[in-house]
Write a structure and sequence with these properties.
Low-confidence stretches: none
CATH architecture: 3-Layer(aba) Sandwich
Oligomer: single chain
CATH topology: Rossmann fold
Distance between the termini: 34 Å
Structural class: alpha/beta
Number of domains: 1
CATH class: Alpha Beta
Strand order of the largest sheet: 3-2-1-4-5-8-6-7
Largest sheet: 8 strands, mixed
Number of strands: 8
Mean pLDDT: 95
Length: 213
């Protein structure tokens, strides 16, 4: 991942964001929740401080930042220090894999998606959460990236580009949810969640792993 040391250094600021932007966070969480299927074994790739894994009842994850992983562990999660491009799991290990605002930070997004496919069982689900590059929010973050601690070197993706990556990696049956329809500073209550993408700044995408006979 890009600049792991940034997350090691500013892990408290990162975690505090969820408290200071509670309604943005809860809106995004609701969008992701709508795409989470029933599952027996789940993993979050880039678990951070556990803000999504915990409420979604995902008990295991990987995280390259030691400082962030420590917070997740203190919250009762099982966390391995590892990279998205080289997951420390056997093939066909999970029913569900989660990547929430992770793909924009990884060094090799294509290989990260392939790795997610590898560890999923046939017909398993990958759920991603992204700031849509083509949305008003993506454009705002691009404009302000030089002033951001965390977004200086990220690569934001459009939904269509990600769908191409997912398709090429062996995923299909895509579903979408979107939220954050105004600037985060203007959100004073939990925002609505809508199907599709194109209007919301945050988009959740679910994809199924193809079963090969």
């Amino acid at each position: 991942m890009y600049n792991i040391e940034i997350f090691n250094k500013y892990f408290e600021e990162y975690d505090k964001w969820y408290e200071e932007n509670k309604f943005v966070y809860l809106s995004e969480l609701n969008a992701v929740k709508e795409l989470i299927p029933r599952f027996e074994s789940g993993v979050e790739i880039g678990i951070g401080t556990g803000r999504f894994a915990l409420p979604l009842k995902i008990k295991k994850g990987i995280e390259p930042s030691m400082s962030m992983a420590k917070i997740s562990k203190n919250r009762g999660l099982t966390v391995l220090q590892a990279m998205a491009e080289n997951l420390p799991f056997k093939n066909n290990s999970f029913d569900l894999a989660l990547m929430i605002v992770t793909i924009c930070f990884v060094e090799d997004p294509v290989n990260s998606i392939k790795e997610a496919n590898r560890i999923l069982r046939d017909n398993g689900t990958l759920v991603l959460g992204i700031v849509d590059k083509n949305s008003f929010l993506g454009k705002l973050y691009e404009k302000r990236r030089s002033k951001s601690i965390f977004y200086k070197e990220v690569r934001f993706f459009s939904v269509s580009v990600l769908i191409d990556m997912l398709t090429n990696a062996g995923f299909y049956n895509f579903e979408y949810r979107q939220t954050i329809f105004k600037y985060p500073s203007d959100i004073k209550r939990i925002d609505k969640v809508e199907p599709g993408y194109g209007r919301g700044g945050f988009v959740a995408i679910s994809a199924k792993k193809k079963a090969y006979i």
